[in-house]
């Protein structure tokens, strides 16, 4: 873990192979197939040559709970963020095959605030690969080190040739500082790419987004640690907690 944290401190991201088992990946993909069939209106077409996203999959698919609070990654997540780590957002993304369409790599940050050293991470994201990702598929890509300082510079201050297009087998997890420049690297490919994206923050801090509705079974969790993790709801979840 010490080496992993040193790498994250310098680069603002970390790849963890095998974060989900083969059986877990199979179960999660089956739940996604089920959700796309049963809850199609919740799946939004985001463009980009076929990117579909649902930020509410947790409502109907308890099999995905493990991806919002992944037990195997919690020690790393808490080492980076501290003991007041809390849930922010959950979404499932499916990038369609793109054999003949345009390619693109839209660099952006998901958070605009730097944080304190050593990790400079106000909001932490985890991306799970649910399909095998290699040099022939769409990838999740990062510009290393672009948030690992007190000042966040514009994109043109960085060398795009340093970009890393991250590959890995299904079950791989990528932890990254949400202020790091990153992109969905859309390639010409006949392969579908599936990912789950989560965001975490600090319970003492302002919420990052107001997209995901977290279900009652999570914030009324069976143990104190789970309840603490969901203890600072976003406004849409808070409204449901108070009114329903």
Concise overview:
With 244 residues, the protein is an alpha+beta fold. 25% of the residues lie in helices and 23% in strands.
Describe this structure in words.
This protein has eight helices and eleven strands. It has helices at 2-11, 22-38, 57-60, 65-68, 74-81, 216-219, 224-229, 235-243; strands at residues 13-16, 44-45, 51-54, 85-95, 104-105, 124-129, 139-142, 164-166, 173-177, 182-186, 193-202. The protein has a single domain (2-202), classed as Sandwich (Jelly Rolls). Strands 1-9-6-11-4-3-2 form a seven-stranded antiparallel sheet. Strands 5-10-7-8 form a four-stranded antiparallel sheet, with no helix packed on it. With 244 residues, it is of the alpha+beta class. 25% of the residues lie in helices and 23% in strands. The model has no long low-confidence stretch (mean pLDDT 96).
| Domain module tally | 1
The fraction of residues assigned to DSSP E strands is 15-25%
Uncertain residue ranges: none
CATH class category label: Mainly Beta
Query: Could you give a short account of the major beta sheet?
Result: 7 strands, antiparallel
What is the assembly state of the chains in this entry? single chain
